[in-house]
Amino acid sequence: MLSEKIQKALAPLNLEKVAAGDYSKTGYHLEAAAQPGQMPAVAQALLDTGCFLESLTAVDSSRESFTLVYHFANFYELCRTVVHAPLAKPAAAPTISHIYAGADWYEREVYDLYGIRFAGHPNLKRLLLPEDADFHPLLKDFGATQENV
Predict the structure, then answer these.
(1) Would you say residue 129 lies in a domain?
(2) How many domains, the chain?
(3) Whose CA, among 14, 23, 100, 101, lies 20 to 30 Å from 54?
(4) pTM of the model
(5) Range of the domain at 35
(6) In CATH, what number is assigned to the domain containing residue 81?
(7) Is residue 128 part of a domain?
(8) pLDDT, tens digit, for every residue of 14-54?
């Protein structure tokens, strides 16, 4: 099974978590937790097992941190993998665009909407909002003022 192959490929990376998921409840066959610095190696391992990057997004977890959420899938065998990577604010995460070319757009979108920077990204600029926008609309404190905080 592909999920077992992926688990074996991720084992040498010493991730915080690699566990079977409950597909009927979560939509994932495999769930993993990694540090942002481990993501290029995770991405390469998943590419080597035949997976593609399905999406990349973020969650504004708290005033101190984000969670990057990477979704991987496979064309030939139904096996969806999610990888969560906590990221302290305002730290940058390493890009995986040199491994998955499609990550270029996802990382630009996450930068645009959350302000998260991706170190080594070849063209990290706004994708959806105007170049001169001075805000990131998916932050929890977007639009907050002293009066309503």
Answers:
(1) no
(2) 1
(3) 14
(4) 0.92
(5) 2-119
(6) 3.30.460.80
(7) no
(8) 999 999 999 999 999 999 999 999 999 999 999 999 999 99
